[in-house]
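Saturday, quiet lab. Running sequence design on the structure tokens for the scaffold JK sent over.
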């Protein structure tokens, strides 16, 4: 059974290929097109398909469109209602629905040879739910989905067993915790449906002084749903102009809304546990990228295990749609082993990229030791290794690494990336050392989707990795799965006593994460990075510029001889 999953309608377009229940490939369109989030989530862009990622998925498996048994599209227009009937102010939403209805024809045009009859519409929140439960290591689990919107709802609570979903609750639009948070994002001067993670970071700098008022109107209900009318934010603070300043009443508003979001999510998850009694909760939907809230759910609800799908936003619906259709047609879904589901190149191919670019490089046997030496000497390392990540988190395949023991490195890394200084960077820690440094969150935590408290005795030892509130969004590294990275962190620990390095995504502000070797070389050439790791190869900034200076001198000498 060969199923191609497609997410296209709103934002973060993506494609996933599932063969006989196994996820073979998954990628976001932005990594190919180099357009952040692939496109803006407006009705006029709803026709755009993730053509590059769809074709790559098929190429990865050596398939042609005619070889597919089904294409799973993560939206079902038959379930949608006119925007005004759902209380949404979106006069062009009918255009979005028209494009969705015609998706089979659009897909057949983009993938010549595909029979449009093979296109299956999967309800948006079912696709989210399947991406959590069917990709997880749990044979059965409760599942909680919250996002901005689907066809007519913003929430699904249910239970998966044997590949089948039992829906227990849902929340009809216009009430939406995702749209509430998006509206706040816009009010705080950030880009809506893009920069919500900035609000989460800013919240740590404020006080929840508007929380009591928010509790009056935003709350869970007895039937497993909630009420979340979008307030007039200006009653508390005027809209923020993104002029580089931050804090004050805007941070207080962010803190208040973040706190209320966490409380409502805990209530929703607790209600779900009362219905199912399950030990495991799986989560997806854009709200599940809120790692602070995820940790409160883990701490404060009866669920023993909380598993969040690493591409929890809309990109992950291509994964869930494909897995659900595969399950419906008799293929047993297999859990994903990791988020590394994207593109990769062989060692020889990477060497050829460097040779073609006339970039001097080495291929040392002791690469982890050499990288650790640069990190211990306070160098910044661009790390490119293996298959790229599916989802928004850099997880040691396309990462920017630095020393956590120097407080100034937080400001330094944010300057390298060209982003706001209130943004934290994440610690990457060896899995077997994590519990001695971090607490109040699940360990292992391989997908950087939970926030942990940093133990007091470690806060002064890794200050660059500690957020203003004493927490950190950690990634635990298993050397069995990532041997080169694990060996590098171990070598760094041998030099510094710190089994932790700073990890942030390998990109600069406003650009998608680096995906192919050309992206990596462009970043290395334009940002103050000391070392580029490209698989088993090393490129040192000093050697690169020495080579360029030598080449320039040779050209000058040749010109002088020619004139003489």
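Result came back. Writing it out in full:
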């Amino acid at each position: 059974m060969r199923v191609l999953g497609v997410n296209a309608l709103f934002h973060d377009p993506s494609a996933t290929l599932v063969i006989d229940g196994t996820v073979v490939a998954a990628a976001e369109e932005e990594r190919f097109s180099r357009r952040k989030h692939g496109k803006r989530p407006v009705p006029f862009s709803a026709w755009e398909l993730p053509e590059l990622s769809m074709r790559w998925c098929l190429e990865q498996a050596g398939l042609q469109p005619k070889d597919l048994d089904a294409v799973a599209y993560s939206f079902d227009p038959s379930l949608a209602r006119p925007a005004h009937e759902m209380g949404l102010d979106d006069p062009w939403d009918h255009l979005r629905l028209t494009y969705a209805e015609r998706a089979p024809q659009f897909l057949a045009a983009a993938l010549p040879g595909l029979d449009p009859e093979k296109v299956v519409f999967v309800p948006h929140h079912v696709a989210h739910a399947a991406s959590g439960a069917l990709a997880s290591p749990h044979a059965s689990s409760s599942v909680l989905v919250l996002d901005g919107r689907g066809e007519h709802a913003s929430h699904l609570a249910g239970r998966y067993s044997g590949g089948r979903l039992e829906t227990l609750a849902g929340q009809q639009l216009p009430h939406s915790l995702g749209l509430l948070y998006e509206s706040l994002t816009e009010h705080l001067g950030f880009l809506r449906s893009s920069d919500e993670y900035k609000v989460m970071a800013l919240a740590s700098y404020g006080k929840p002084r508007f929380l009591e008022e928010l509790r009056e109107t935003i709350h869970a209900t007895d039937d497993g749903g909630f009420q979340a009318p979008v307030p007039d934010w200006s009653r508390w603070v005027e809209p923020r102009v993104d002029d580089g300043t931050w804090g004050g009443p805007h941070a207080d508003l962010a803190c208040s809304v973040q706190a209320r979001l966490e409380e409502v999510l805990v209530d929703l998850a607790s209600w779900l546990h009362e219905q199912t009694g399950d030990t495991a909760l799986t989560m997806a939907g854009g709200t599940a990228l809120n790692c602070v809230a995820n940790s409160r759910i883990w701490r404060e609800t009866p669920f023993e295990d909380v598993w969040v799908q690493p591409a929890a936003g809309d990109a992950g619906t291509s994964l869930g749609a494909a897995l659900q259709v595969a399950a419906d047609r008799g293929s047993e879904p297999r859990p994903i082993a990791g988020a590394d589901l994207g593109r990769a190149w062989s060692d020889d191919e990477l060497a050829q990229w460097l040779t073609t670019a006339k970039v001097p490089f080495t291929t040392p046997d002791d690469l982890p030791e050499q990288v650790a030496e640069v990190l211990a000497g306070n160098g910044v390392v661009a790390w490119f290794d293996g298959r790229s990540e599916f989802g928004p988190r850099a997880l040691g395949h396309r990462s920017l690494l630095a020393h956590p023991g120097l407080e100034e490195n937080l400001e330094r890394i944010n300057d390298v990336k060209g982003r706001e200084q209130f943004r934290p960077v994440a610690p990457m820690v060896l899995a077997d050392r994590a519990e001695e440094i971090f607490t109040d969150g699940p360990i292992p935590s391989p997908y950087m989707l939970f926030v942990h408290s940093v133990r007091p005795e470690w806060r002064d030892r890794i200050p660059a990795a500690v957020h203003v509130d004493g927490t950190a969004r950690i990634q635990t590294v298993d050397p069995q799965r990532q041997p080169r990275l694990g060996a590098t962190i171990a070598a760094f620990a041998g030099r510094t006593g710190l089994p932790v390095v700073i990890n942030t995504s390998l990109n600069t502000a406003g650009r998608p994460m680096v995906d192919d070797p050309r992206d990596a070389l462009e970043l290395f050439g334009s940002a103050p990075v000391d070392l580029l790791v490209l698989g088993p190869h090393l490129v040192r900034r000093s050697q690169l510029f020495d080579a360029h200076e030598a080449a320039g001198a040779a050209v000058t000498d040749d010109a002088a001889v020619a004139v003489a």
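Notes for JK: The two ends are 72 Å apart (CA to CA). The chain has a mean pLDDT of 95. Ask whether to fix the surface positions before the next round.
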